[in-house]
Fold each of these.
Amino acid sequence: MAAVVVDPPHHGARRSSVLDEMAQASGDHAHRILMRLVSEAVSEVPALVDELVARGHPKVAVGGISMGAFIALAAAVAEPRLAAIVSILGSPDFTPRSGNVPDDLRDAVERGPSRQLERFPPRPLLLVNAGRDDRVPPEPARRFHDALRPLYTGREGQLVYREYPESGHFVREDDWRDLWQNVLTFLRAALTAP
């Protein structure tokens, strides 16, 4: 396996003031910025898959942590060529935490992964969350996993939900090591299967 780490829009070498704006924002405004970042990143995924396939990688998986997990799940909806999906500390439900869906966020929520179940199977999907996460609570990922289960009938090991009950958004060290072992085991199986 080869790992390619990409700076999403407004991050790393591409850093812009949008991240500072997000750090200052709260409530629905912060969620608007998150949805903007997710949308911009997802729009780049097809070209990234094209490039990786052209370089000789026949199977391309996507994974992310926190905001990257939101991006990974949204990318899975938008790009059917992704062979496997790993979401770490993310949510498939794009509803703002307030529960209120303003008109300008309605489309993002309606197109969110939790409302596009049929876009995931038969691709392997690993969801990893933390039981005490107050930034990205695990309940939406749990519900998503339960809703997807009937669509993965007969596909043992293709849909995996793992939760670390004692960890928060900053996962405990022992859990973090175990998490990465689970991710690597999952990806090896997903990407080496015929």
Amino acid sequence: MKARGWLVAAAVVVALIGVHQLLAEPFRIPSGSMLPTLTPGDQVLVDKLDREPRRGDLIVFRRPRSDEIMLKRVVALGGDTVAIQDGALYVDGRRRRERYADPRAIDSVYFGPVRVPRGSVFALGDNRADSIDSRTFGPVPSSRVIGRVVARLWPPDRVGGV
């Protein structure tokens, strides 16, 4: 009877690991590139079933030409033209108001314009002055997206939506 109990316990553990790998996964924020939205040490929950990001979503993805896992904000979708002029983000020629980006942390660099290929997204850190993002490595193919951030799990005083 004990062997059967161990077998059931092992099956439950394997099932939980499988669910973890398929449905959702926690992710720890390693850097300040997403300040002020997320701080180093914050933990978020990533919905791995939702791999169709929308503009404004926070996504976790594998960096193009690398296996490094990153978290950034989608600012433009396939077919959009993106540019930065004097620190302000423009998508399809229109300036975007970014309530999540700290204007004091946006450097006054110029970028683009570039057209985002279909099947890709353009992802930037909220802390533009301290972020390696699509300005460096280019658009992120949808096949590299792991999932969409749905909630902050840690620290306890900031649990909830992001």
Amino acid sequence: MGEPLIKQPLIEALCEFQFSPIDKWDSTVSEIFYDQVKSDFPERKPINQLNFQVDQLNVQLTIGQESLQNIPESLVSQRLQFKRSDNSAVVQVGSDLLAINHLQPYRSWEDFRSLILKMFSIYVEICNIKRLERINLRYINHISTPEGRFEIEQFLTVFPIFPSPINIDLSSFSQVYNFEYVKAKATLKHHTGIIQTTEGQVGLLLDLDFMSREIESFEDQSALIYWLKNWLNEAHDFIESAFIASLNPDYYESLK
């Protein structure tokens, strides 16, 4: 991310677009999209998501086809997932969503941006879209730490500080901050914490999610795509600055 890093802590980068639901979304739309991306994303499978609210929070759960029988149709959104053969990237599409997820190997922002713009252009062309409800660009980093006791400030500049007598070893923590970018009409969600990796090891999380809502309408799709390219570059610049500022300078240098 940003300046090339030899030891990337990046686990996943993603860009997600939310649209107003498309009434005419059907298998035909999905097939047209697949025909245009199958050379890069040959693997496809359906995804069913159950949508509901808990204490004013929107919750989405992925469910299997066999679980649909007793669930009201209005609560389920059906989407298709397309995957690269090497599992390095996944694209998910539905009547109200386009999501592009990039895993490792992640080579550069320029490559990821090109992929986002290509998938977005195909989607808006097929669905005749000129307006976005929401867009977010997100980078999820897992920082490897040594076994046993370690100081969080060896890796992060943002960490919890407690007075005596509770300034003792932490077994876990999670901090979330939302920063408002008034000029950009956007919010940066900054999340740090202690995590367990899939291998069962302890590490640190640095999750940066830049989001805009209530985006203006555009006269045509070319104007929307032009706006998107500028938004992506600006969002990435904000995330890159937050990424560098959140890391201990010595640790950041060790990644190069």
Amino acid sequence: MSTPQEGNRYAPPAAHVDDVREPADSFELADRGTRFGAAIIDFLVMMLAIWVVSLVTPWHPFNATLSFVSFGTNAALGFALFVLINGFLLVQRGQTVGKSITKVRIVLPDGSPVPAGRMIGLRYGVGYVVASLPFIGGLYGLVDALMIFGQDRRCLHDRIAGTIVIKA
């Protein structure tokens, strides 16, 4: 069998790239339990913040009589509150409050920081939008969470944004 250099025009391209590192080469991925703990902490922080905001403003997201419009409004206000609480940490250190406490952080696969738009828009924004859709949101959340059990420990939102979570 000939190699591409010998003129086999149907051979796949062969290139060696030195500047691209795989996560396993230099980083220790965060384990599933730690990521789950960080998610629980983030959930509790958000619920506390939403409750406090609902006490001091007319916004009442826990109202049992929600319409489709108020569902979307709640999702938008909830995302804005999430960014208000975690935005600085996410952009500066690749961490939410929960990730900071559990000592893990979000990075690109080469170890570099995640750009702000990619972090807020792709990693979190897409999930908030899809999760706010009736029926589809629940399925998205289930698939997103179950993907952590893959060998590379990446959830769907990690794959969408092209990120990994490593020990800090």
